[in-house]
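To the wet lab folks,

You asked to see what we're planning to order before we commit. Fair enough. Below is the target structure as tokens, and below that is the sequence we designed to fit it. If anything looks off to you, flag it before the synthesis order goes out.
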């Protein structure tokens, strides 16, 4: 029973990171119908910037803020420079562009920083909590990860639901042509969506890298799991992204704990395959999406 509790709570932190990646993918998909395969590489690149700032200043929170700001700028820059020209082109064009961005960012990181794995500090302690003699399998840093991702998710939900910016983003996602006729500057809205996705991806990179180390391809597997979480929850649903991330994180922690770490990747693939077979649109997809 103690092991079960440890594995369950221990999976929450990774699940929240997968949820952050999934949420960033959902943001872009809802607005542009593009799957951003470079999201992991963007997170990796901004995490390198955070590490440089931390190493030079000794201030974790300054590095944290720089990573988020860099993610915001990088997301907007990529949308403006390489994604915008693919509008009204075959969908495969945009997919190939995002894969190209992935290759370029990982190549640049390798040239600038080298391929050596680097340690990244945690925001808070990594010694697990205990209740009496029972280890809970969760640390102060895990609690911070969960709170940070939930806070960002809540702010996004409030923005979409109760602000004029959120209304414009929803209108642009629903029907860009009609939104333009109603005076919505769709181009700016899409840029904002990519910028927010870049920020959320940067958050995921900073939060997870203390336990995975940092290298040019260190976020590749995290992106795969984040994509799986997005599919589980439904690419239309921000709530589904968070729930899908949590479910996947806990499930993969069970696989790691009971069956061995070598089977974690296979477990993620099995989860993705199962959802695609049973509910291709995701568990939280809107009714209209499930009928398509």
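Sequence we intend to order:
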């Amino acid at each position: 029973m103690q092991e079960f509790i440890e594995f369950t709570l221990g999976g929450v932190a990774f699940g929240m990171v997968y949820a952050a990646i999934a949420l960033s993918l959902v943001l872009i998909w809802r607005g542009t119908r593009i799957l951003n395969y470079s999201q992991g590489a963007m997170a990796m690149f901004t995490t390198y910037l955070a590490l440089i700032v931390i190493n030079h200043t000794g201030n974790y929170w300054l590095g944290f803020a720089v990573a988020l700001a860099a993610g915001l700028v990088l997301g907007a820059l990529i949308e403006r420079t390489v994604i915008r020209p693919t509008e009204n082109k075959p969908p495969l064009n945009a997919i190939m562009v995002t894969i190209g961005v992935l290759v370029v960012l990982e190549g640049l990181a390798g040239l600038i920083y080298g391929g050596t794995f680097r340690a990244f500090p945690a925001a808070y302690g990594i010694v697990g909590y205990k209740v009496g003699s029972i280890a809970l399998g969760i640390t102060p840093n895990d609690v911070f990860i969960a709170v940070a991702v939930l806070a960002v998710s809540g702010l996004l939900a409030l923005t979409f639901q109760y602000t004029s910016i959120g209304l414009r983003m929803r209108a642009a996602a629903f029907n860009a042509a009609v939104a333009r006729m109603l005076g919505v500057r769709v181009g700016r809205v899409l840029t904002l969506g990519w910028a927010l996705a870049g920020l959320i991806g940067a958050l995921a990179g900073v939060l997870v890298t203390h336990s995975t180390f940092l290298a040019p391809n260190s976020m590749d597997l995290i992106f795969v799991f984040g994509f799986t979480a997005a599919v589980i929850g439904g690419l239309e649903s921000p709530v589904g992204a968070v729930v899908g991330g949590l479910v996947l994180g806990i499930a993969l922690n069970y696989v790691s704990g009971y069956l061995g770490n070598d089977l974690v990747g296979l477990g993620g693939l099995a989860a993705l395959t199962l959802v695609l077979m049973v509910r291709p649109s995701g568990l939280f997809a809107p009714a209209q999406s499930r009928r398509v």
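Structural context that might help your review: The chain has a mean pLDDT of 87. The first strand starts at residue 130 and ends at 131.

Thanks,
Computational group
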